[in-house]
Write a structure and sequence with these properties.
Layout (H helix, E strand, L loop, with lengths): L7 H7 L12 E5 L2 H5 L5 E5 L7 H8 L15 H31 L2 H7 L6 H29 L1
Antiparallel strand pairs: 1-2
Length: 154
């Protein structure tokens, strides 16, 4: 008899596979490998299902673990870092505006067929400029509102 109480000789002689001895497919019992038997491990092993389904509330809770707090948007950043970031963004916006102006001049000289392939694979300064404008406006508005709230509340 094995450690689980099932006679291994009986299972082998009747042709019943050890995996199907359980009452359901959730936990399956199987014999050890030939290598395990050679090492004297005459035991039955159990295969337990490790999949676990989470309900909707648990998924929502787990997704919200890495979310920033609601007050994160109200925190004021360091003024020196913010002003340096503004300067860098404005310098890049100046370069992008010059590139955009050059591109507009070049596009006036090209035919419609040449326009289709003229800027393929190149950085679009108009899109970058629009993105930089949006980023700098958002950061400045948040910084200004946070500063005003700080002076009013405290």
């Amino acid at each position: 008899m094995g450690s689980s109480g099932i006679n291994a000789e009986y299972m082998g002689s009747s042709g019943i596979n050890a995996e199907y001895m359980g009452s359901s497919g959730i936990n399956a019992e199987y014999m050890g490998s030939l290598q395990a038997l050679m090492h004297g491990l005459n035991r039955h092993y159990y295969c337990l299902v490790s999949a676990y389904r989470k309900d909707e509330l648990e998924e929502k809770m787990l997704k919200s673990l890495k979310k920033p707090e609601w007050s994160a948007g109200l925190r004021v950043k360091d003024f020196q870092k913010h002003s340096k970031n503004n300067e860098k963004t404005l310098e890049s916006m100046l370069k992008l505006a010059k590139k955009y102006n050059e591109r507009l001049g070049e596009e006036g000289k090209l035919t419609p067929e040449e326009l289709k392939t003229a800027n393929v694979g190149k950085v679009d300064p108009r899109k970058r400029l629009a993105n930089d404008i949006e980023v700098i406006l958002q950061s400045n508005i948040v910084q200004s509102l946070g500063t005003m709230m700080g002076t009013r509340v405290f």
